[in-house]
Design a protein that fits this description.
Blueprint: H1 3-22, H2 33-49
Length: 50
């Protein structure tokens, strides 16, 4: 592989990573299982109060 092609590949790879970092994340942040349980309990408590 010639030098110019290899440099372009490296540049494009770094550019792709930089664009991915700048773009908004598609996945939600991870919530621990214990935290999910407390959130769901508080949601059910609010629903019962209404």
């Amino acid at each position: 592989m010639n030098r110019k092609k290899k440099l372009n590949q490296i540049f494009n790879k770094r550019l792709k990573k930089a664009k991915a970092k700048r773009s908004p994340n598609q996945k939600d942040k991870y919530i621990a299982k214990a935290d999910r349980e407390t959130v769901s309990e508080s949601d059910t408590d609010l629903n019962l109060q209404q």
